Amino acid sequence: MRPEAPEGTRRTAQKRAIRGALEEAGEFVSAQQLHQRLDEAGVRVGLATVYRQLAGLAAAGLADTISVASGQLYRACESAEHHHHLVCETCGKAVEIDPPETWIRTAARKHGYTVTGHILEVFGRCPECAAA
Amino acid sequence: MRPEAPEGTRRTAQKRAIRGALEEAGEFVSAQQLHQRLDEAGVRVGLATVYRQLAGLAAAGLADTISVASGQLYRACESAEHHHHLVCETCGKAVEIDPPETWIRTAARKHGYTVTGHILEVFGRCPECAAA
DNA sequence: ATGCGTGCAAACGATTTGCAGAGAA
DNA sequence: TTCTCTGCAAATCGTTTGCACGCAT
Lengths: 132, 132
What we know:
The structure is a homodimer. Chain A is built from 5 helices and 6 strands. By secondary structure, chain A is of the alpha+beta class. In chain A, α1 packs across α2, α1 crosses α3 and α2 packs across α3. β6 of chain A pairs antiparallel with β6 of chain B, so a sheet runs across the interface.
């Protein structure tokens, strides 16, 4: 027997709502924040369902996820991979930068690791602050 | 009333033990792992104390901290230099990897930024855990 | 009709906090 | 002595899970 995992097949209003809300959010949001937004939008879904769907989307590669001290955050993964920022230590301004995906994958493969995530923060000084 | 925060001043065996264990660990460890290691080493300290000290070290900039799905991890912040790891999220094993210095500098220059520092950690699953 | 997906609430595990006692200053 | 730090246990908080029912198929 091969249970095979056809998993999420049924179309339900909740699934659409959750996925829609996640995409609409655009940025990283927690399961609870998403649940709250849905609630405010008049969509009544169980918090557990939000967690389950979010976990499913992440597992299916449809959502990116990162961990912060307060919990786990999710973001629709339709667009590019998750990005990082180059933060100015003086004025706080940050610009988006692309992660060295290739480099990361290469380094991981060299050690036989499967990459599941990474954190990257670069600090420095922006042009304006450097000039001042 | 101004409680003012004179903060940690007293020297206690626990503080030394915790900080020592953290430095000895070298890599990222959770409060619980650290507590367990101390216990195995015969050092009896309360778990709450470990959490409090770790939080204090992080706040004081003496420790780096990152968040993963299973919780928060700490690492002595002495080195902080060109020394990054590829961490297995399952067994915690980590291998050292070289940072994409060139990439970082290039990305920063593209935006006119002057780099002063960076943090990079890659998470994944090691060969053994991936096989299991 | 046949389950998968959901909602609710209890269960969980990590981290925090209240309080009284121990030890550093 | 004084007051910070520690220990223990209860309290939080985010997240997961057991169950029974409703709805998509």
